[in-house]
Design goal:
With 449 residues, this protein is an alpha/beta fold. The protein contains 14 helices and 19 strands.
Length: 449
Amino acid sequence: MRKYFGTDGIRGKANNGTLTADLALRVGMAAGLMFMRGEHRHRVLIGKDTRLSGYMIEQAMTAGFLSVGLDVFLVGPMPTPAVAMLTRSMRCDLGVMISASHNPYDDNGIKLFGPDGYKLSDEVELEIEALLEADLHKRLAKSADLGRATRIEGVQARYVEFAKRTLLRNLELNGLRIVVDTANGAAYKVAGDALWELGAEVIRIGDEPNGFNINRDCGSTEPDALSAKVREMRADIGIALDGDADRVTIVDEKGHIVDGDQLMAVIADSFHHDGRLTKPGIVATVMSNLGLERYLGGLGLTLERTAVGDRYVLECMREHGYNVGGEQSGHIILADHATTGDGLLAALQLLDVVVRSGKRVSEICHKFEPLPQVLKNVRYASGKPLENALVLAAIQDAKQRLGNDGRLVIRPSGTEPVIRVMAEGDDRDLIEAVVDDVIDAVAKVAVAA
């Protein structure tokens, strides 16, 4: 059982719950010791988003790493994918991103990357957890072996150049008016800079972080402000990133929101046409719409499904050799270029299609008609309601009623005592009925518990 690590690193309320300065210090010590491999001078790179608590966690982790003998490179506010890229390119032994992604400012988190730029495996995270509970004082570095901390300048320009190089060298965005919303988060400088350097007219919103306003009424999870701005400015496209810029939401020229499923369809079609898919298919989670699966099938492509979470998508991609994957929420992973989701890179691939086709975003990003999808949650008190005979019978009945024309996905939340029930199919009345029946069964068990 995990005590600290969840599906995406360590996350919690900053300084008033799980994520304290003391924990951050110990994570620095434990992770540093885990990656002290070999006789060379060991290095760790630390990036963060714009939350107020980032200063506290950054300094505490720095102290932890220095105390066990690692040198620390501090790069300040940078997107999660940039930290992963820089960890690898600067030959660091470990990378750290301090962020709670799309959560509000008073949450924060710690994501760890290995020297290859990939998030750590469950096994390594469990080893770090074991060290967190151990007495590490005897393993501290001697006075002469303490690490040094250095703030690195110019890394934002390195990431901008990296992002631009993922496109064809002669591709320009001249003539495109783009609204970019960076959620007052980690990409508040680099995203707009990259688009401007490619020739676009860039209108920036959500680019004035103050420590408290990250993701507040802005960004990929709150795209209403972006939609309004696109209509106001008569822009060609709107791009919204979340707080750490590893996910993206697109808004077309009409102000309509485009989800990750449609974006994956566009990228899959483009890569397939250009012969860039390493395998005839892509990877997505069980939450992606059945319409995406049917659309890909029409292209002769498959959709490999995983559990919810970009880490599971990436694990499947690496294991089976896929180079495109993602989530409906906008985590898009392009394995030819990145080791994690990258909202800016995904948006650039869409812009590549826009420029080369000469079509509007609304035309390009409507690859399929999504099937009706219903998602409901039910809270339970304790126990394992999904193992109850009444609930199992309701689930089996729901699957039989849906047959081959729909899907039923039932999963417990990883962070709270909630069961999520999702169904989709051609008949909305039917899917609403089967979801309600399963929800009712779980609710009865929850009350009984």
